[in-house]
Amino acid sequence: ILIAILWGIRPILQKKLLNDISAETVMVIGGTLYFVLICIYTYFNKDKVFNELSKVNYEQKKIFVMISIIGFIASILYYNALSRESSTKVVTITSIWPIFAILFGVIILNEKFNPKLLIAVVVILFLVNYIEN
Description:
By secondary structure, this protein is mainly α. It has 7 helices and no strands. The protein has helices at residues 2-18, 23-44, 46-53, 58-84, 87-94, 97-108, 115-132. The two termini are 24 Å apart.
């Protein structure tokens, strides 16, 4: 639940910044601070991290690059949407990502499709949208 609370407050604070600062600047400052925090986190976990870095293979490196590019593009789209729309609207729309995660999990990872999980996600999204409107 703590994760949900932390992720829930994030767009509110981001929207507060976007009222006065451009999406590009918010992304750059936020990304820089995130990088600093990752460096600190790495320092405290250096043995594990540096030991595993040498073991990352080519296929894994390609996946890391894809994740980074996808995340970067998603961040650009997210911050631009958040700068133009209400935080509740943007969060509601972007909350459909679990549906795509289920779909891609089945297609890419050959995970078993669970219709109950899909129905639960759809119901939750419907309720969130219903409450907002």
